[in-house]
Amino acid sequence: MPLVAGVDSSTQSCKVVIRDAETGALVREGRAPHPDGTEVDPRAWWDALLAAVEAAGGLADVAAVAVAGQQHGMVCLDEAGEVVRPALLWNDTRSADAARDLIAEAGGGETGRRFWADAVGLVPVASFTATKLRWLARHEPEHAARVAAVCLPHDWLTWRLAGAPGLAALRTDRGDASGTGYWSPATGQYRPDLLEQAFGRVVEVPTVLGPAEQAGVLDPGVLGGAAGRPDGAAGSPVPGGDVLLGPGTGDNAAAALGVGAGPGDVVVSIGTSGTVFAVADTPAADAGGAVAGFADATGRFLPLVCTLNAARVLDSAATLLGVDLDALSELALSAPPGADGLVMVPYLEGERTPDRPTATGSVHGLTLRTATPAHLARAAVEGMLCALADGLDALVAQGATVERVILVGGGARSAAVRRIAPQVFGRPVLVPPPGEYVADGAARQAAWLALGGATPPTWAPKDTEEYAAEPVPAIRQRYAEARDHTLDRVAATGE
Prior knowledge:
Residues 4-221 form the Carbohydrate kinase FGGY N-terminal domain. By secondary structure, this protein is of the alpha/beta class.
């Protein structure tokens, strides 16, 4: 019974799961928190990884490890492999002007957007690594001058697990490379010209591996006390002693692998960010910028829409009302569909899709009748889901087939979200049991490496619930009116 480990190094925490490679059965797990903020010293991720590994009982009895991580984060290293400055995360919007500049330099407007979509499958926004590199070059030239290599959070952690054996040993995968802005999913190649366009010069970047290629072997010395195997731990020591390192991937590609998404499935993940994505056989190139044409973790493609505002919309509404999330859900379900016309546009941290980094949230339709906790709770849930449904529409416009929606992430634990989602999405909604699907996807990749074979092992989520309801078109119609009013105001005032 070989065991494998999957790591999810997300914005908020590090999770480690140890699973049976053949069946996917969970053996043990651990977690540790990450610091808040939109820029973080990567060494905090390493410390959290060590703590999570230790909480999970160590890695001495596993055959392979793979790391999934938050996408786009800019990790800059000097010639000695030391971190140059804290990493700018995907949700750091200071590079919004840099994104606009890169589009303008490619011809501006539709011409500039089409250039980038055709070149790398995405249009620059503040989230992507290329725009962060431009910001660094313009605003911190002393740091930029020290940069010898740039990588992503999962790349850096995999490299550290291997003992940090020189910059040339940095490895990544198609899924995470496709979110940089200088690697093309369509050609499977880096675009050094675009890296130079963004940063002013070409630096070392990780080698892109195939879905089940080996990134190296675990250096047990880097784990310290976290390496050991507790008495009574399941499994047996690895023959030969080598623990293989998988290529890893970005968090969304790992989630798709973790839930076993197939044709006709669209995954909606409600976490710190909201993501809507489908597995596809051909790359996407949306010049409008709503759909990012990412690659997936199996050799195919992962057209994806991302919103900055997701589960924390629920957190904020609960805080505003002075209740916990369970009570917020009860309140939302006690109000009628459409909340009697009360609408929340949930751009609480600016927004990535649509690209409005300076936008703010707003509430529309407030009357004496709708000025109740129940109406506001319902409006918060519906507003968050409507923003994600806009992403679903964008995928359909790019050719995606949507037969059902698989709902995952922390926000899916809300009963109100589960029951209201089919009314908003207009399709059946499947909700697997709460789990760490990003970490599970990484573990499944590790199992693929450990077991060999042309495809990853089949791990079917159990006890999946299905929710169905008649669509309520008025919810999205009213939301669209409020959203467009908000976007018109932003366009007119820049605020």
